[in-house]
Amino acid sequence: MDIDAWVWWLIGAVGLGIPLVLTAMPEFGMFASGAVAAAVVAALGGGIVAQVLVFVVVSVALIAVVRPIAAGHGADRPRLATGIDALKGRQAVVLERVDGNGGRIKLAGEIWSARAYDGEQSFEPGRQVDVVDIDGATAVVM
Q1: Residue 4 to residues 15, 39, 43, 53, Cα–Cα distance (Å)
Q2: C-alpha triplet 49, 55, 61: angle, nearest 5°
Q3: What is the phi/psi pair of residue 42, to 5°?
Q4: Mapped to the 3 state alphabet, what secondary structure does the chain carry?
Q5: I need a labelling partner for 78 at 20 to 30 A (CA). Which of 28, 41, 43, 122 fits?
């Protein structure tokens, strides 16, 4: 049983498509596209040298062109702040007097221990303060 070269290239493309799906690495898709292009060359009667050359050229060209474009789009996405990073910059209400030694605030619906960023400042209950940092389980406010 003699299988044509273009069939082998398509089998290779499917083989390269499997890791693309499993790992979500787009490079495998680019290699699979190169294998499909080589299959077309084989189906049109091109020799093995032409097939391998088309595979390499198409794969490298896709990696060289598409990858930087995709990386640029990923960098434009805004980062979502989570955990304590999401609390920085938010406003809180003072529940118990806050100074350089400590106090209590209500931040994001929870009661937190807090201290003043400037140790000489103090904030009285009911006042709105800004959270500058989170130091362990203590909010640093100003």
Answers
A1: 17, 10, 8, 18
A2: 130
A3: -65, -40
A4: CCCCHHHHHHHHHHHHHHHHHHHCCHHHHHHHHHHHHHHHHHHCCCCHHHHHHHHHHHHHHHHHHHHHHHHHHHHCCCCCCCHHHHCCCCEEEEEEEEECCEEEEEECCEEEEEEECCCCCCECCCCEEEEEEEECCEEEEC
A5: 28
Q: Residue with structure tokens 């980062």?
A: 79
CB 91 within 8 A of CB 129: yes
Unique residue bearing structure tokens 């082998």: 8
pTM higher than the cut 0.85? no
Q: Which residue has the tokens 């406010």?
A: 141
